[in-house]
Amino acid sequence: MGGETFEIATFKSSYPKLSAHPVGQWIPNIYKDRISIFTSGGQYETKNLRAMLSDGSASGTPHIKLSVWDAPDLSRPTFKDATNHKFKPASVGEWFGPSWSTHWFKVQITVPHELLEKELLELHWDANNEGMVWTEDGNPLQGLTGGGERVEWILPEKFRDGKEHMIYIEMACNGMFGNAPGGDSIQPPDPNKYFQLSKADIVAVNVEARHLYIDMWEIGDAAREFPTDSWEQHKAMKVANDVIDAFELGSQDSILKGRKIAQEYLGKHASSAKVYDSGTEPIVYGVGHCHIDTCWLWPWAETKRKVARSWSNQCDLMDRYPEHIFTCSQAQQYKWLKQYYPYVFDRVKAKVKKGTFQPVGGSWVEHDTNMPSGESLVRQFVYGQRFFESNFGERCKTFWLPDTFGYSSQLPQLCRLAGMTRFFTQKLSWNNINKFPHTTFNWVSLDGSQVICHMAPAETYTAEANFGDVRRSVTQHKSMDQDNTSLLVFGKGDGGGGPTWEHLEKLRRCRGMSDTVGLLPRVHLGEGVEDFFDRLEKKASNGLDFVTWYGELYFELHRGTYTTQANNKRNNRKSEIMLHDIEQLAALASIKSDFKYPKKEIDDMWEGVLLCQFHDCLPGSSIEMCYDDSDELYAKVFKTGEKILKDLSSFLGVQEVTTLSPRENLVAFNTMPWHRREIISTGNNQAGVACGEGNLLNIKTFKISETPEVTVNEVRSGVFVLQNEQLTVEVEGGSIRSLYDRKADREIVAKGGKANQLVIFDDKPLYWQAWDVEAYHLDSRKELSSGPTKISQSDAHQVSVVTETKISEKSWIKTYISLSAAFKGQQSYVEMHSEVEWQESMKFLKVEFPVDVRNTEASYETQFGIVRRPTHYNTTWDMAKFEVCCHKFADLSEHGYGVSILNDSKYGFATCGNLMRLSLLRAPKAPDAHADMGRHHIRWAILPHQGELGSTTVRTAYNFNNPLKLVQCQESVTPATFSNPIKLTGNPSLILDTIKRGEDDEDVSRGELSKGKGKSVILRVYDSLGGTSKGTIETTLDVKKAWKTNILEDDEEELKIEKGKLGITLRPFEVATFRLQL
Ligand SMILES: [Zn+2]
């Protein structure tokens, strides 16, 4: 080595040797705040970006000429009617009202010369209430929300001719949440609100400035919301401040420069649909939606208009934003649109065909799922899916129910039976005790059926499509071990009209940001709900095991909704029973004869009942106007039903018994599909024993034996004993101090306890009055003390005592406790009937039954089955169920013995230890100031039973809700003629719940879907107790073929029927539908 020479490189740097000036580090919060100030109102709005959003405007005559016609008496006239009236001049600044009134404006628009060439011209209209823009010839175009929200309507190209053009605006005097006084939207509406028309301007929009505004909104959010230890947060702050530094008021160049700078953060395509074509893998799928409550803080009539406004908006947005997919549920809303707004319906239909407007949900309305009967839940899907199929050619695959107050454990099974494998919801994020642990999971029914359930992790179904919503789609995602994708359901609900152009622009920026700097979850638009679930199902079929949740999705809030608006709930129960009877009788009549199955009337009745099961109607959370509406609708349902029943009675050859009728040929009218033996009063203190099977039961005279079969005695002063063969009931002070089962030789009332004791609680929940009852109400328990008890009935067949209890100066309750003669081999029960005058404020009335039975779980009837819930408060999950939903009965049983409490119209119950408690009445004052005030009639019963909960309870509860009716038959008619041609024998846990005609039978169908040949009968059978059950359908009808079908009545499996017998086996809690083809 050696001898080599190296040239030594001299390091030359241009880096200045001396510091030129001091440079400070940014103070983050100050530079962050500066970003907001750049786009906000206030002292700088004439100097910041806002000042450049418009490029000129015009208002007043001659450019905007206004005239108005005020619709009289709060009416909502049609376009044709309204525009036939004389309009009077109107101007900006005038007030319109009162609440709920409608005002039609003629708006004559002449674009001023200097604006004719501007890029984008809009009409800005704001009266702080909802409106609809109509063409001059009567086509509804777009909704307006008011109050700064959705105030723009884009002027059509043809308006740029310098001539006068005309539109109409239909103004509705309500805001998007009705007419609440002040800021508390759940207070009863103020009937006297007035609305000022504050703006009616032609505005030339500076489109680039508007784009920069959205750019800055999103980059500003990144600067504010990304973690401060991320480079992406610092970069956002830098880019935003660079944009502000570049801005010069009045300089369009500076706007363009700002947009260029913003691209450093958002990428090149952040203001176009192209942004979604980057080919990168998204994980958040945005879907536009508009949650329109079918009634709530406004009546149905307003909902019809909200639907038309909102969905027109969406059709319009789709034309401008090709990535926009909008999804909406509720067949009833589509039907209204078809009836009242055919122009909009056709627009929607065209978009459905294109795939951008996507019907979802498969149900008639977004209904409550706690209280409707099993058959009602079935019909929600039958009527929903049939509407979607007949109008759009396709059924829905996803059950969509973001906003309801708890989810029945049988929903997954019914979804599957209605052709739906997926379920979307959200409300459980409102739980105020425990956090629900999953985002995407398999939800499993009582019978084992499952659906994939997804709850959007952004925890809203009305997202504003904010940066934060996109972020939360990952930060709040609880199922990322299995799958990290999620839905982001965005768009203003109710009167807000769904997604806005701002939402769509913001999401474009979000996607651009994810692809440019990252960190934000990558959001995608252009795919629908079904695409999202298709991917999940595919992952599952490739071996991805989603976690499971078995049984009900109990909602830990809104527990008052099982009780509020008692009358409405009673009407629900009664109408369900009436429809059951009509369908059964009409099915059999129409098969045996040429009796015309009244399909149209039945459809109208069902659609009414299903509508009233909407998630703010049946639960009792709507304003008074909505209950006026539902009362009227139920009255119509009952009127139609009575008429059909009358026709059916004359077909059966029976008639009602009047006081004048001779007491001859009396029979008991029955619609329960099993043997019954009951005492039936035949008037004048006389009674008979109705016994048999079928629709008409023979009545035998009640034999009065030497030792009376039921007695009542005042054994000591104020102490009464009612007794029959099986039970001894001791009543003192209005409550039952002892209920002794003579056969089982055991006391039923807990030691020292008082059964049938009325109690009252203070009921002031944290906020949602009609909705909520909070655990602390239990601490305010007060026993009501009764007045004297009297014997009110002492007949050979039945005895009763009556007690009147004062609740307050204005309210009272009169309770009859009755015991009937017992039949050998049939469990006797104690029956209560009460009449209540209820004029309370924020109180909760209940009746208690402390029983000598011990179990850590109680059972509650639910749709097609039973739910077991804890009777203890071990964990917060157990405690949260301090008030739960039941149907016709609740039961507490231990090994060998139990007690069931039956009811005829109630849904709220609690079992705490051995204390059973039936909820009777509440008195919330918001949103209906008069909820539940007035007179109520309620029946309930205590049914003790040997053995555990069994078919005795299930069937007695049915019978209790379907009392036999005394009728008179023509001499020629013998009850045997009317023995049921269809019977179900076998395991007594099997219930033949529904008998009806096939929807598409040629003599029944109304033609919405293709007809089937011949006549068929549909039978719905379920296992009521949770065990594999075998039975036989026996029929005397000439059945050609028999099928097991789904609830939509699609044939699935052909079954063998031999000599009129069809053997069936059901899974525990299975709901099975059979179609007998005649
Ligand atoms: Zn809702």
TrEMBL record:
EC primary class: hydrolase
Record InterPro entries: Ams1-like_N (IPR054723), Gal_mutarotase_sf_dom (IPR011013), GH38_C (IPR041147), Glyco_hydro/deAcase_b/a-brl (IPR011330), Glyco_hydro_38_C (IPR011682), Glyco_hydro_38_cen (IPR015341), Glyco_hydro_38_cen_sf (IPR037094), Glyco_hydro_38_N (IPR000602)
Pfam families: Alpha-mann_mid, Ams1-like_1st, Glyco_hydro38C2, Glyco_hydro_38C, Glyco_hydro_38N
UniProt KW keywords: Glycosidase, Hydrolase, Metal-binding
Family according to the record: Belongs to the glycosyl hydrolase 38 family.
GO molecular function: alpha-mannosidase activity; carbohydrate binding; metal ion binding
Keyword Hydrolase: yes
Name of the protein: Alpha-mannosidase
Lineage, uppermost ranks: Eukaryota, Fungi, Dikarya, Ascomycota, Pezizomycotina
SMART domains: Alpha-mann_mid
Reaction catalysis annotation: Hydrolysis of terminal, non-reducing alpha-D-mannose residues in alpha-D-mannosides
One GO cellular component term noted in the UniProt record for this chain: fungal-type vacuole membrane
